[in-house]
Amino acid sequence: MGSEFYTNSATACRDLMKQFAILSLLGAIALEAAPKGNLADPAKHPFADPVGGREKYRLAGETVNEARLYDFYQRQADFYMASPGEVPAIIPAYPGLDAGQHGHWGKHNQNNHQDGRWNDIESGEHRTTVFKPKGASVLKGICVRLGARRELSACFDPLSLTYRSVWKGGFLKYHPFRWRTSRAVTPDGDSWFTISEAEMPNDSSYFGFHRFGKRTVFEYGVANVEVSDEP
Predict the structure, then answer these.
(1) Spatial contact of 175 and 183, defined as CB atoms under 8 Å apart
(2) Do residues 216 and 209 make contact, with C-beta atoms less than 8 angstroms apart?
(3) Hey, which of 79, 82, 169, 224 has its CA 20 to 30 A from 206?
């Protein structure tokens, strides 16, 4: 009974995540493809009015959500299904978080919020992130712990097939700005070395990485030779 419950819950969670991803993609496509000025306007389109669609959300009354646009796609679909004669050649696109009325960041940007709890978690043996050691920037860094007792850490750059940084001590340090979402990650320890710039070698391709116990193995090709590289 318990196992079945958790299995069904996990399946439902995955389904919701897929639906969310699809809606997010549709929103991005709509914004990209929409002619200039073809965004939904709360003054002309009832489904874009942030006053509506809030009834079933218990946190809709919180200050941070007071201008939030809820259920845009569902409300838009319901509106045009009820009024098929009003469907335009290109339906108006999603206007933004707060119906486009308060700019990109919305009415409450929360830029003053600091939350460093990411630094308290056990993050495991590897982390993929934008990584910025002193003197370098690794846009797709894959940071891994090394050694049986985690004596060292390294950052592998899949865009250059290079270990851009190695350090000892801790692992990663997360900036608390906006729940650590808007600042790059830095090394938490003493640097052994950092390579400021690196480029992908000719005739090379990065294939990915896999785990072998707690170890991380990078797979790539150089001049038709396949390499399994464990730091």
Answers:
(1) yes
(2) yes
(3) 169
pTM above 0.70, yes or no: no
Tell me how far apart the alpha carbons of residues 175 and 195 are, in angstroms, rounded to a whole number.
22
Query: Residue 97 is which amino acid?
Result: L
CB atoms within 10 A of CB 193: 11
Place of tokens 């985690």: 150
Spatial contact of 221 and 182, defined as CB atoms under 8 Å apart: no
Contact 142, 155 (CB under 8 A): yes
Go through the chain and tell me how many residues it has: 231
Question: What is the DSSP code string of 120-134?
Answer: GS---SEEEEEE--T
E strand segments, 55-203: 126-131, 138-146, 152-157, 162-173, 186-194
Q: What CA–CA distance (Å, rounded) separates 229 from 24?
A: 36
Residue 163: count other Cβ atoms within 10 Å of its Cβ.
19
Residue with tokens 């790539």: 220
How many other CB atoms are there within 10 angstroms of residue 112's CB atom? 7
25 confidence band (pLDDT: 50, 70, 90): low
**CA separation for the pair 173, 131 (Å, rounded):** 10
Cα–Cα distance between 32 and 93 in angstroms, integer? Answer: 9
Residues paired with residue 205 on neighbouring β-strands, in sequence order: 221
Taking only Cα atoms into account, the Rg of the chain, rounded to an integer number of angstroms, comes to 24
For 183-203, the pLDDT digits (tens) are: 899 999 999 999 999 999 999
